[in-house]
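This is your field. Have a critical look at the following sequence-structure pair:

***
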Amino acid sequence: QVQLEESGGGSVQSGGSLRLSCVVSGSTISRKCWGWFRQTPGNEREEVASIEVIGRTYYTDSVKGRFTISRDNAKNTMFLQMNSLKPEDTAMYYCAARDYAMCSRSLADYNYWGLGTQVTVSS
């Protein structure tokens, strides 16, 4: 059974940084597509960043140049380094995995989800 557990969320001021972690159990991280998503109350969950088996990455426009997705295959852990945080980055952040080497822009294509970690950025 694949399980994902996020950590690293918290409250920071605008311009600050956080690093989110997603520890994976029950699966080998190097063999799947992995992604970070976020959601605010009343809004749809959106993709923030993803990384494919070959290492190709995707970022939504609003975080390009500020966020970096990475993974440590030895530790079976995925990360999201978030720099220059803005109040509009405030959300619940989720990690997810898809049972394919390539990622998808559709949330419905992701098979496994964590419970989320809250990120709050104050101005």
The chain has a mean pLDDT of 95. The longest strand covers residues 18-25. Residues 58 and 64 are 9 Å apart (CA to CA). The two ends are 40 Å apart (CA to CA).
